[in-house]
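Researcher: Quick test of sequence recovery. C-alpha cells follow.
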C-alpha cells in the first residue's frame, strides 16, 4: 500500500525526508506530488501571513507577482535537465521505493509544460500523471497522455454528490483517461459504497485514495477521522481488491488532525498497520 506525498505536507518534505517517512511505514510506492519540483528548486512566492485582511494594493501586487512567477516557473520547467529527475528516481529506487504516479496537476499549464510533465513522469518511472478532476482537465490532458504513451488520472472530491454527475465523460474524452477515485471523499459526500464505482470502472483505474470519513448524514458530516474511527468501508475496499487482484494501488491521503505528540509520518505508519491487519 503506497502513500501520497500529500500525507507529509505538514512536515519537512524534501525527497530525502519523504524517503525516510516511507521507510518508517514500510511503504514501497508513492504518488509523488509537488515534492518533486520543490525539491529541485522551482521558483515560488514568499508565504503570505495568514489572518490579515489584504488591502486593494496588496491584492493587486500579489496578482502581478503571481503572473511574473508563473512565467518564471514555465521557463524553469522548460530549461530543467531531465537528468535531475533521473537522479531523483535513483534516490527512491535505491531505497526500494517506486514512484508509481507523478502529480504535477498541469491542466492549466502551457502545452510545452505538459510535455515536460510527461517526460519527467516517464523518467521517474511513473505510469502516468494525476490532476484534479475538471471538464477542462479531462478534455486536455488525455491527448498528451496518448502522445507520451502514458496515463492521465483524475482525482475526485465531492463532485459525485452533485446532481447529474457521471464519471463516464472522463473515459469518453480519451482512452488514456483513468479515474483516481478518492474513496473517502466519495463516501463522505454521497454516503454510497465506493465498491460500486470500483467494480464498474476497475479496468480504468490504477489508484484509489483512502481516507476515513463520516458520511453525509452523520454529525459531524463528511469529517476526516483517524483510520477505524470513521465510516468509510475501508475493509470492504481492500478485501475486494485483494479478491479480484486488479492492478489498482491504494494511496493513503492523510487529512485528519494529527494527535498531540505524534506527526504525519507516525500517523501514516499507523494507517498502514490498520490496513495490513485487515488483509492478514
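Model:
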Amino acid at each position: 500500500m503506497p502513500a501520497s506525498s500529500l500525507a507529509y505536507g505538514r512536515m519537512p518534505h524534501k525527497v530525502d525526508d519523504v524517503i525516510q517517512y516511507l521507510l518508517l511505514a514500510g511503504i514501497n510506492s508513492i504518488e509523488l506530488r509537488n515534492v518533486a519540483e520543490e525539491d529541485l528548486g522551482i521558483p515560488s512566492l514568499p508565504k503570505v501571513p495568514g489572518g490579515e485582511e489584504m488591502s486593494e494594493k496588496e491584492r493587486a501586487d500579489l496578482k502581478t507577482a503571481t503572473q511574473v512567477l508563473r512565467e518564471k516557473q514555465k521557463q524553469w520547467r522548460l530549461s530543467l535537465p531531465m537528468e535531475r529527475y533521473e537522479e531523483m528516481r535513483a534516490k527512491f529506487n535505491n531505497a526500494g521505493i517506486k514512484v508509481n504516479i507523478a502529480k504535477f496537476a498541469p491542466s492549466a499549464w502551457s502545452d510545452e509544460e505538459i510535455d515536460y510533465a510527461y517526460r519527467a513522469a516517464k523518467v521517474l518511472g511513473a505510469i502516468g500523471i494525476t490532476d484534479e478532476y475538471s471538464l477542462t482537465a479531462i478534455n486536455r490532458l488525455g491527448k498528451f497522455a496518448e502522445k507520451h504513451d502514458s496515463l492521465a488520472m483524475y482525482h475526485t472530491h465531492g463532485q459525485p454528490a452533485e446532481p447529474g454527475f457521471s464519471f463516464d465523460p472522463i473515459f469518453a474524452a480519451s482512452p488514456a483517461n483513468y479515474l483516481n477515485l478518492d474513496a473517502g471523499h466519495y463516501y463522505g459526500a454521497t454516503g454510497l459504497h465506493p465498491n460500486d464505482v470500483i467494480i464498474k470502472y476497475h479496468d480504468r483505474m490504477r489508484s484509489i485514495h483512502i481516507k476515513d470519513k463520516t458520511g453525509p448524514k452523520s454529525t459531524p458530516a463528511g469529517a476526516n477521522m483517524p483510520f477505524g474511527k470513521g465510516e468509510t468501508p475501508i475493509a470492504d475496499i481492500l478485501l475486494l481488491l485483494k479478491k479480484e487482484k486488479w492492478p489498482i494501488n491504494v494511496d493513503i491521503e492523510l487529512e485528519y488532525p494529527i494527535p498531540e505528540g505524534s506527526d504525519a509520518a507516525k500517523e501514516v505508519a499507523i494507517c498502514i498497520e490498520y490496513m495490513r491487519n485487515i488483509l492478514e
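Strands lie at 3-4, 29-32, 98-102, 128-132, 151-155, 177-182, 205-210, 212-213, 224-225, 249-252.
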